[in-house]
Fold this protein.
Amino acid sequence: MPPKRAIKLITTDLKARERLLAGAAKVYKAVSATFGAMSGNVLLEKPYGDPIATHDGVTVARDIFLRDAIENMGARVLVQASAQTNKLAGDGTTATVILGYNLLKEAHKRVVAGESAMELKRTLEADSKKVIDYLLSKSKEAGSKELLEVATISSGDSEIGALISNVVEEVGNEGSITLREDLIPGIKVEEVGGYYFDKGFFALNIQVEYEKPHILVTQKRLVSAHEMLPIIKTAIETGNKRVVIIGDISGDALNTAVGNIMNGNWECVVVPPPAFGDDAKLFLEDVAIYTNAKLFYEGDRMDKMTPADFGAVERSQVNQDRAILFNASNDEPIDGRIKELKAALEAESNANKRERIEQRIAKLSGKISIVKVGGNTQSEMEELKFRVEDAIEATKSALAEGVLPGNATALVWASEELDVHPLLKQALQAPFIKLLDNAGQSGEFRLNQILKAGWAQGFNVREMDTKTEPKDLLELGVLDATKAIVQTVINAVSAANVLLTTNATVSIDDRDDTSKSNTSKP
């Protein structure tokens, strides 16, 4: 019997766009409540466990699913835009929702009044490029002071800001920061000066540390005893019985390895590849270069190996959660590999591929820090984790591409100084207005104040009252990462254009109950 097919509903033209807009409006209302240092938290109900309080816009957005299928589609397009900003810049997620919704709302009014949706789309795309060029031209390089200010603003805490800015500056653009949950309340930082694997061994349950171990790197999956015995024999011949195997072992090969460990013939720990498929091959090539080891491929014979095929490091540390190879002395090949990867990074436009290349550069550079976050309760830990994560990503973005005056004033000045469509001009001012409204101020009144005061003039919403006048945000240290603001514009315009040019939706009819009606009675 063929499988039951879901019945679909088709909704077109104005009715479709109105319901898409209604869904986007619901996301906007929930997410924009978190915008700015003086805004509130949102409490998220979870299927299991206690609710979580968060000040993080993208976390709120990702948790929103609406009952109405068409409204939910409108909501999810804005959520995707916010998530993309978070992925590429780590900040600007709430501003993306605010800007995207306001673009869509005003564009919808114009389309209803008779304007062409496609013409508006083309205009928004062209004008948004002007805005991006303007923002990049105004960007200021971020030094230690600026990194501290960005981290402090993003986390909402000066102590967290100081800790995170130091970590980001220490690892630099080539390094990597891993965020982990901890059982102990507070924030701790562990610096790792070696090649770091996000997974550890699969067979043992204690931490294993070796001094000057041999490193065997293999893409070839070891499954038989006759493949494992030459490795053991070669290690014994060198007089150094400690071996770290980077690769997959199973079957008789694993039994042989464990049996020889039990008999005292050698010491061995196995670390599975840190990726799958083609990525695994690339990572294994990197590890082989890092340790100066031969990489064994599928067709290679293990009985032909020699002691020279082993790589070497000063120390290895492996447990169930991670593995680290410390202090390789293979500088020239490592530097050459990093140079190749940087060239590949510049040529790559795909965000996922760029992220993987950046991870490989970080591992080869050996600049990795682990930030551990804990709380007295799960809710407290989650809330702190969100703030630390925001601070890390915002500060990394500032280090990479510089900073601009914060609190959405850079978008305001782009709207004022550029010749852009009135629709975009109005939307670019919406984040600033919402931020000041959330701080208990009149956003419209404060907007007029900064427009009269000039470029980079604005407010520190943490320290203002009704009599506060605009001040230079660069001097106040109220800054945003340029990368986050640019990604806000790119992704907000993209989301608005998708919804603006949608003429029909196809959604599942959840009223359909044919499975029951077609069931025959006994």
In short: The chain is about 55% helix and 15% strand. Confidence is low (pLDDT under 50) at residues 513-522. The longest helix spans residues 378-401.
